[in-house]
Design a protein that fits this description.
Radius of gyration: 23 Å
Distance between the termini: 29 Å
Number of domains: 2
CATH architecture of the largest domain: 3-Layer(aba) Sandwich
CATH class of the largest domain: Alpha Beta
Shape: globular
CATH superfamily of the largest domain: Zn peptidases
């Protein structure tokens, strides 16, 4: 089968590589859902998007965004047709597996200070030990001020770590199954060892850490109660391979699809049907809550727009949703020759062969699957072929091997046509994941084509 690298030569290949550089910068600087929303808004406003407020009338070509609690985002380019006639939607999530601090995280134990944690999403615990970690997030104080935290990314910044046991003494540890080698409750981050000066303190090292936090960020220990602080791998995304054909970085799942979807939406001009990009939170833990895809946030935004075109009623909202078409932009598994037994070669995605479509997801017996109709798949195929986009179809591993899901089912439950469409990734949910620059570029082209030509 032809690969992306055979398709793009000369100046076209330079476009592929240049697009990857923009994405690497995004991935390196955006490691939390809050940071993703902030950066997405900054990019959108440069392209003429405005926050939706005090709007009295909609005109074709208008560009608006709705910000939900700084953790999810919906962006719209108004089309020539009414909202009720349906929209073309790209939906990705901007949260990634990580390690969160508990609400009472700071403690001292035998001459060392630690943060107590609770991991977020599906991770292999043992992959997160003995590596540099950075601390990102926000501390919300009682006086109404918010303090942004980012420690471990700048040159000269300290990093944090979760310790591991030396192999010389790990005989019992290594006899455990993989999910028990490092227990979730033992993912405690080492943060300091110098005691506070002066009076005798019960926990002098903890006291010194608190003094440092108060001096640098004006926060007290109680402020952790109203904080959202996340431990993520420190460092930038990097080129992978001697040919620099791949990118290794934290959070490809799903910021690689979020970025390509966002850029495709920002470049949407004068669409026939309203173009939409949804960036959601909480996908890695079930898409629940006020900032997850299950929230009414998106429906409320659509209702606001409908009310400016027609007298609003719930039926018009339902029509708008059921007449819409959506790509659930989420990553898929890329075939790994080191682990061939978990995939079925005729129905898996490969690096360098373009965007991957999953007609269905779920696990054994398609449980909890959202399955696209054959009619909708045919329409998607035509759009891709008409725009000369390279694509492949795949599933998430062998039938009884495992599986997974995306936000597709949530919008499909609104009677909307939805199919999963994303970029193949290796090392999924590891601290550093890998993707092909060729697939990155082809997904961007696929999303642009879908917004422009899907009827």
């Amino acid at each position: 089968m032809k690969t992306v690298w055979e398709k793009y030569k000369g100046k076209e290949l330079k476009k592929v590589m240049a697009f990857a550089e923009g994405y690497k910068g995004f991935l390196s600087g955006v490691k939390t859902e809050r940071e993703a929303v902030k950066e997405a808004i900054a990019l959108a406003e440069k392209e003429g998007f405005k926050p939706f407020k005090n709007v009295k009338k909609l005109n074709p070509g208008d560009r608006f965004y709705f910000n939900n609690r700084d953790k999810s985002l919906a962006l719209f380019v108004i089309g020539k047709k009414k909202i009720e006639d349906g929209m073309n939607i790209l939906g990705a999530h901007i949260d990634s597996p990580r390690i969160d601090l508990k609400q009472n995280p700071l403690y001292e134990d035998n001459g060392l200070a630690f943060f107590d944690t609770h991991y977020y999403g599906g991770i292999k615990h043992y992959q997160w030990v003995a590596r540099p970690l950075s601390l990102h997030g926000v501390v919300c104080k009682k006086d109404g001020t918010n303090v942004d935290i980012c420690i471990g990314e700048k040159e000269g910044d300290p990093v944090l770590e979760i310790s591991d046991l030396l192999p010389h003494l790990a005989r019992d540890q290594m006899a455990k199954t993989g999910n028990k080698i490092v227990e979730g409750e033992d993912l405690n981050a080492l943060i300091g060892s110098i005691p506070a000066e002066g009076e005798e303190e019960k926990d002098p090292i903890k006291k010194n850490i608190l003094d440092l936090l108060k001096k640098e960020y004006s926060i007290e220990e109680d402020d952790f109660l109203s904080a959202e602080l996340e431990l993520v791998p420190a460092g930038k995304a990097r080129d992978l391979g001697l040919d620099k054909s791949m990118i290794m970085g934290y959070g490809h799942d799903d910021r690689i699809c979020a970025y390509t979807s966002l850029i495709a939406l920002l470049e949407s001009k004068d669409p026939d049907r309203t173009s939409v990009c949804i960036l959601t939170d909480k996908e890695e833990i079930g898409s629940i809550g006020s900032t997850g895809a299950s929230s009414s946030f998106f429906e409320n935004a659509v209702a606001e727009l409908i009310s400016l075109q027609d007298k609003y009623n719930e039926l018009r909202l339902r029509h708008a949703l059921e007449n819409s078409k959506m790509l659930s932009s989420d990553v898929s598994i890329a075939f790994d020759p080191n682990y061939p037994s978990v995939t079925e070669s005729k129905n898996t995605a490969f690096f360098g062969r373009g965007i991957s479509f999953n007609k269905f997801t779920g696990s054994g017996g398609k449980f909890n699957s959202s399955e696209a109709s054959a009619e909708f798949v045919a329409k998607v195929r035509k759009v891709m072929d008409d725009n000369k986009v390279m694509f492949q179809f795949s599933e998430l591993g062998k039938v009884d091997q495992g599986g997974g899901g995306t936000i597709a089912y949530i919008l499909a439950n609104k009677n909307m046509d939805v199919i999963d469409a994303g970029i193949p990734v290796q090392n999924m949910h590891a601290p550093f994941e890998t993707a092909s620059k060729g697939d990155l570029y082809e997904a961007y082209r696929a999303y642009k084509a879908f917004l422009k030509d899907m009827k």
